[in-house]
Write a structure and sequence with these properties.
This protein has 91 residues and is of the alpha+beta class. 16% of the residues lie in helices and 36% in strands.
C-alpha cells in the first residue's frame, strides 16, 4: 500500500505508523466515567468500507495525516495533514 503524503508524495506504508480511528472523541477527563474511558481506550468498531484513520509519517516529514481509506480494498481516497482536519486550515 502507498500513502499519498501531502508533503512528500506517494510513499510506501512502511514509512508510516498507524495510530487508529481519526474520529474518536476523548471523554472529558474529570467528568468521564470509568466505563466511558474504558470504551475510549479499548473498544473499537471493525468497520467495513471507507474509514478515516490517523497515520504518522515517521520516515519522512514527521507529519500526522488523516487518511481516508477503504478497509477492504485499501484504496486511499484522501490524505491530508491531521491538523487541517480539525482546524480547517491549509497545511
Amino acid at each position: 500500500m502507498r500513502i499519498p503524503c501531502p508533503h512528500c508524495g506517494a510513499r510506501d506504508v512502511q514509512e508510516f505508523t498507524y495510530l487508529g480511528d481519526a474520529g474518536l472523541q476523548r471523554p472529558d477527563g474529570l467528568a468521564a466515567t470509568e466505563a466511558a474511558m474504558f470504551d475510549y481506550v479499548y473498544l473499537r468498531d471493525n468497520l467495513r468500507g471507507l474509514h478515516e484513520e490517523l497515520w504518522y509519517h515517521g520516515a519522512g516529514c514527521h507529519a500526522w495525516l488523516a487518511v481516508r481509506r477503504h478497509t477492504l480494498t485499501h484504496a486511499i481516497e484522501s490524505a491530508v495533514p491531521a491538523k487541517s482536519r480539525w482546524t480547517g486550515a491549509a497545511a
